[in-house]
TrEMBL record, chains A, B:
Originating organism: Mucilaginibacter ginsenosidivorax
Listed name of the protein: DUF2520 domain-containing protein
Superkingdom, taxonomy of origin: Bacteria
Ranges where the DUF2520 domain occurs: 124-247
Domain Pyrroline-5-carboxylate reductase catalytic N-terminal: 3-87
Stretches assigned to coiled coil: none
Lineage: Bacteria, Pseudomonadati, Bacteroidota, Sphingobacteriia, Sphingobacteriales
InterPro entries: 6-PGluconate_DH-like_C_sf, DUF2520, NAD(P)-bd_dom_sf, P5C_Rdtase_cat_N, TM1727-like_C_sf
Length: 260, 260
């Protein structure tokens, strides 16, 4: 299949490479920033452009991977080509494309991508939604070429997945950084925490989070929690966070949530 | 060396197994709960007791791995044997042992242990503190038999490490559970998030957390954050958490913290 990528960010970069490696042809990359368009285009053997009106009709699928609030405007511009248009956004409804074409779908990769880091795309869950069954089958075939993990998820499900991903990825990564800052104040190497961070994530690959919760809050160890809050004196933002997260763990443990 | 374990919880279980595998002899396991003492003793070929006054002097090191507030009382009871006494607690000062004996040290394993899960002990950072250089050398030799990652950390450093571990392990694990709950409400499989959780932890094994932060907050994407808060309507605890954690990410990104 011939694919055109609209966007050259983290998602577009990893997805374009995965599709090229699977034998598809990336014909063109568009980005308003010509340098970024050219860089990704170079890596996947495509043409580059920074002009919307230079995007070619000689393709099978347009894959839009840009900021959420730019998707509608791009879809409007591409509809004239009468090809399948797919976006990759977690928090954008399929309706945003359907406003301009019925030949539309979504291919949302549920992973955190950085340009500087390789990802095994075969393990990346790909969430598909489409305007009809025939388009769904086409997108599924495309997705199956690069991932072993394909899910049918509608726009409402995708939105909750995106929110859940913020809790499962963006917030934990922030907390890793808080831990690093705390150690930096005592000149202690962040390396000490790295095995712990990895093991914490590995544990929940087979087990449920609540069943492997450790630490003072799940033991309701009030002495240690009070000592920790005292160590955070002068950092009210971290104190508030410590209290709120600990309360959540205690509530879970008391069966007030259903995550058991 | 002959080792006696006081306690039979997660840390004692993993540590005793590691020392036994490294060729040391576990002579006795004490726990107030005889069933737990016998279970661990069986696994490491030791005798079991639930009576403090039945703990034998025929050992080289007592390793105390019990709840923090029980350490002092146990140390007092063991001091009569005039052997090296070591505790494994992150948040307990060495002084708690020094009140009863000068033959004392700390061996703190910085990892999250669950009885149901194997851990590669060679990668577990072991933090050592001792009453003097000679004891430090003895504990270091013992530690080096089971781990490649040995650090000299005093009581103040260990306390901050323990606090940092709460942020790097206990709180992220709680947030994994929140994500699972959010998906459960829509009947979406937690398996979709597992690769994301693992990749998030793997990313910071080589890189710094702030340099690989992704998500709406680091992009200062106010539209998505507002939509997420709306999806959390009726869950004020999660809304407060979302706001506090997002504010932290935004502040970091604006250079208001030093984690760059």
């Amino acid at each position: 299949m011939r694919l055109t990528f609209i966007g050259s960010g983290n998602v577009a970069t990893h997805m374009a490479a995965a599709f090229k490696n699977a034998g598809h042809r990336i014909v063109q990359v568009y980005s308003p920033n010509m340098h970024n368009a050219a860089l990704l285009a170079y890596h996947v053997g495509a043409a580059a452009t920074n002009q919307l009106n230079e995007i070619s009709s000689e393709t099978d699928i347009f894959i839009i991977s840009v900021k959420d609030d730019a998707i509608a405007q791009i879809a409007e511009a591409l509809a004239v080509h009468q090809k399948l248009i797919v976006h990759t956004s977690g928090s954008t409804s399929l309706d945003v494309l359907l406003d301009y074409t019925n030949n539309a779908g979504v291919l949302y990769p549920l992973q955190t991508f950085s340009k500087t880091r390789e990802v095994d795309f075969l393990t990346v869950p790909l969430c598909i939604e489409a305007a009809n069954d025939s388009i769904y089958a086409d997108i599924k075939e495309l997705a199956a070429a690069v991932s072993n993990s394909i899910y049918s998820i509608n726009s409402a499900g995708r939105k909750i997945l995106h929110l859940a991903a913020v809790f499962a990825c963006n917030f934990p990564n922030y907390l890793y950084g808080v831990a690093r800052q705390l150690l930096a104040g005592y000149d202690i190497d962040f390396n000490l925490l790295r095995p712990l961070i990895l093991e914490t994530a590995q544990k929940v690959q087979q087990q449920l989070p609540a069943s492997v919760q450790t630490g003072p809050a799940v033991r309701n160890d009030q002495t240690t929690m009070a000592a920790h809050l005292q160590m955070l004196e002068g950092q009210p933002h971290l104190q508030a966070m410590y209290t709120l997260l600990s309360q959540g763990i205690i509530k879970n443990n008391n069966g007030e949530h259903e995550d058991k």
